[in-house]
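Lab channel / #folding
Pinned by the channel admin:
"Please post every new chain as: sequence first, then the structure tokens as a reply. Keep commentary short and put observations after the output so the thread stays searchable."

First post following the new format, from NK:
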Amino acid sequence: MDTLFLCAAAAVAVFAATNIDDLFILVALFAGGRWRARDIAAGQFLGIAILVAAGLTGALAALVVNPVWLGFLGVAPILLGVRLLWQGGTEGESDAPAAQGGAWAVAAVTVAGGGDNIGVYVPLFAAQDASQIVVTVAVFAVLTGAWVALAHWLATHPSAGPPVRRWGGRLLPWVLIGIGGWVIADAGTFALVRSWLG
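Reply from TO:
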């Protein structure tokens, strides 16, 4: 029992460390008004589930995912950000985006920024037995819900909400583009592409 308690505590620490950036992204998504709250929540759960599945797959296969290849995931948020800029930003668009990507678009952003998650999850799961993996995944699921709830609260709070929504809509495209660029640069993918070109 003590081992599982320690496992749960470690899972809390790992989730918080690898998903603190997601909290800010979720606040921007809720404030931006481009997707329905339920789509953002579903997309976040879907994205985290994909990252956990990738971590489990890597652990089971005893493979470490090459971060250079993970950098290509950065293209997804860049394209989303460019699309938002092309459509004229997000102001006054709270009802428009529900059919434009929805949960899958949010999941793509979550996965694109999750290279560090996979890098941590693979060795974490590789060192755990089946019961510990179940505990870790359960903790991740609970904390994903907590992340979504906290981000929604911050974006809709009577005092914090209005300025967050006002600036969130304007900043969301740039946040997405910045995330994508950071993922690509941090993974060293630019160097890989340069080697292909020349």
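NK: The chain has two domains: 1-161, 163-197.
TO: also worth noting, The first helix runs from residue 2 to 32.
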